[in-house]
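Document type: protein sequence-to-structure record

Subject area: structural biology

Format: plain text, a pair of labelled lines:
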Amino acid sequence: MSEELSANTPPAPNFRAARFLTSAARLEQSPEDHGWEVAFAGRSNAGKSSAINSLTGNGKLAKTSRTPGRTQLINYFELSAQQRLVDLPGYGFAKVPLAVKKAWTKELERYLSHRQSLRGLVLLMDVRHPLQEFDQQMLNWAMAAGMPVHILLTKADKLKKGPANNSLLAVRKALKDSGELVSVQLFSSLKHTGLKELEQVLYNWLTDTSVYDDGEENEET
């Protein structure tokens, strides 16, 4: 490993050290595009903020709301100077004005397509209603960008073990053609089910130095 790569290798992410960094209404208002970033996306009320709070052990870090569609900003949370978690606006809620839907659809697509520090997408779906139209749209964007996706089937505590596992198997079967780019797990913010599995995925993404390896290979050729 070169000295430059060693200097740029990120630390192991400390999720408990997460702090609010900034909010952005548009991509241009985001923090400087460097380091490692993982975004959380999903339909409104899918449990994005609750998942982030469960992960970080801070129930007040990401604001939750009983009113779906309330979050209309990209919220950045800093783990270290090089690592961030990102809470994307909820999408697909019928009562949000059409103009707002269109604007945020555009911003989400721009974020996924142009954010160089984005290393992976955590896509949250209610285990009782997975793979809705907007979930498929997010998957299509990610696949087009070659972006790895980890699906959290949230609110797993709402189902008994058998039905929850059946939903998990059904989603895996539906996405089998996606190969290694997509992984799926059950998750419950209330009971912290699946937390360790999520932490391992994020650890891999937030310490991935392949971006530097690719750059070095290009310089040598």
Q: What stands out?
A: Helices lie at 3-8, 48-56, 98-114, 133-145, 161-174, 195-206, 210-220. The chain is about 35% helix and 20% strand. Residues 98-114 form the longest helix (17 residues). Residues 130 and 153 are 7 Å apart (CA to CA).
